[in-house]
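Annual report, structural modelling task.

Input specification for the pyridoxal-5'-phosphate complex:
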Amino acid sequence: MRRVYLDHNATTPLASEVFEAMCPYFLEDYGNASSIHAYGQRARAAVEEARVEVARLINADPAEIVFTSGGTEGDNTAVLGVAEAAETPSGTKHVVTTAIEHPAVLYAARALEERGVRVTYARVDAGGAVDRGEIARAIQPDTVLISVMYANNEIATLQPIAEIGRLARERGIPFHSDTVQAAGKVAIDVRELGVDLLTLSAHKICGPKGVGAMFIRKGTRLRPLLHGGHHERDRRPGTENVPGVVGLGVAARLARERLAEDAARVGALRDRLEAGLLDAVPLVRVNGDRTRRLPTTTNLRFEHVDGEALVIALDLAGLACSTGAACSSGSLEPSHVLAAMGLRREEARSSVRFSLGRSTRGEDIAFALEVVPRVVERLRSISPRYGKEEGVTAENAENTEKNTPIEGTPELTPRPLRALR
Ligand code: PLP
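The model returned the following structure:
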């Protein structure tokens, strides 16, 4: 059976170059990078080479790169580590983030709230964008951290990170950005963005799972999440995951070298998929800002179709996609991102994300364009409402290119802990 993978925002296949570069560090050069003998020295050299590659991807100094176990650890380290290290004259602390962050930031912020830190979750507009003014209004005299993601994992909207970076600089507030989805897909220059901390993850850029990196600008005060040895300049104790770090280094180099080519090619495929579905399927809308987003992703709302049912039916037909974040799959609650954009419950629940990557080919898009309209039509034909209400038949339906204003109250704060998981 033919299988096509359009869920690259959940994870990506390992690039063969990455796999080959990692292999020797499992079987031959298996030394501990902290050991002083030849085995250790070879492992250390490989870790440092990878550090240079990660630094080059984001225009940082290698000394500002810290290896982690992935995006979740990086986000937690930034949010908890900066807030806990901060001191304010009043002794109180406040953090600004947004309502559409990944759970790795939202739950870290929630953990801070439980420890008495106040958190403001800035609202986003109907396209999923946060504006500088909203962040500026949220700042308080005891604000110790601003954390805003660069690209959202569900709708791919890009946030004005450089503008927020300037604001943070003016106010002297440390600024973190979760760039797990943006890194390797859009150019990132930490100097231009004005970030003090940044998080990235290898498995989103054709690298291995369970390894990532943080940029921590020199001089940033941070309390490490873990306690142990003096690894990673005392920022992150624990024996380095040498094969994983090597894989991340190669993945970062490939992402840098192929960034422009990948973005243009994958962006054209995404546009073909999106235009084709808007054309072939009645009552479909695009969620999120279509002008400022990653070139890899389209998040579509198929009215009168349950998103979860569509994902399952498409999987049975050979097409892998997702209703949103992989980590909240199976949750009965609609996406907190779509809710924050003002979508009604049914609208959010009828949304599906298609995310492309370097391995996506034209024939994969042709397959999706053949399968999706057929499956949507079948699901609608068994829907009790579709075709039986005024205004919801294929004949009189017209797809609008633009997102229409959406009713409903934006969800400004994350839902209770369990609901988001
Ligand atoms: N941040 C964002 C925006 C993500 O999309 C993800 C993964 O889905 C993470 C953080 C967590 O990264 P990891 O899977 O490496 O823990």
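The pocket of pyridoxal-5'-phosphate is lined by residues 70-72, 75, 102, 104, 149, 153, 178, 180-181, 201, 203, 212 (CB under 6 Å).
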